[in-house]
Amino acid sequence: MIQVANAPCSWGVLEFELEGEAAACGQVLDEMQQTGYAGTELGDWGFMPSDPQQLADELGQRDLQLLGAFVPVALANGDTHASGQEVARRTAQLMRDAGFPDAFIVLADDNGSDPTRTKYAGRIQANQGLSQADWTTFAKGADEVARTVKDSTGLRTVFHHHCAGYVETPDEIEELLKRTKAEQLGLVLDMGHLTFAGGDPVLALEQWCDRIWHIHYKDCHPGVAEQSRERGWDYFESVKHGVFCKLGEGEVDFPAITQALRDHCDDGWIVVEQDVLPGMGDPKSCAQHNRDYLKSLGL
User: Is pLDDT at 253 greater than 60 in this prediction?
Assistant: First the structure.
């Protein structure tokens, strides 16, 4: 059976410094449980308890599983690799010690930190990417994080392609997969980010099937995406205008994706994400809509 989780980013808890105040941990976990989800991701370090027993207690009293933790590292800069490995190791150890040895480190670039990639998110051109030397550094850093996490905690690492980072487009995802070790680093396929970047999630499921270890169900609104391109919005403006909309209201073909997942596996998890920033709407009602939509697909 495929089980359904959500993530703190759906309540505005993101890795970026943004205006407004997101809900506290207890409220987010309560509302996650109340709207019918069976698991969560960790959120930023410190959002949930960093003591393993306290973390286990918070999740256990709501009967929630922990699926993973987002760890951003500026991988194109070799000077960040050692500190990135340590953050990933510490985060993985917390999840393992809290009783979740199957959780993933969700490794990502330091998204939103490069002005060009942030400005042109959703419409990246080939000449705005990494040099060959930078690709070598980036891939080496990703492999090193995955190796450190596996050797020290036994947990696995998946890479999160993400708009406003250096691995956004289908070609960039393919390049990273070619340059990293298949047995060591998997891919989290994020439907919304791939669609905004010009990709096809259904095709991606076929193309990268062996490397996809983790799934994010995120939608992308075609009208907002088109406005973003026409008006030159940067990544953050696009998010504020709702480019990542409620499930079923965008262009991602979730019925086809869900059937493809059923054809390949009968168990596992999907994680719902909808970036509802403070002031954008009611995260709980959005979470309920998304859960009800997935129930209509038999999930």
Answer: yes
pLDDT (tens digit, 9 = 90+) per residue, 110-135?
Answer: 999 999 999 999 999 999 999 999 99
Closest alpha carbon to 218 in 111, 112, 294: 294
| Domain 2-296 grouped into CATH 3.20.20.150 | yes
Whether 98 and 52 have beta carbons less than 8 Å apart is answered as: yes
* Measured distance CA(59)–CA(22) in Å, rounded: 19
User: Domain coordinates of the chain in residue numbers?
Assistant: 2-296
Q: Which residues pair with 185 in a beta bridge?
A: 157
Residue type, 234: D
**Torsion 254-12-287-66 (CA) sign:** positive
**With 70 as the cut, is the pLDDT of residue 31 above it?**
yes
Sign of CA dihedral 284, 286, 291, 296: positive
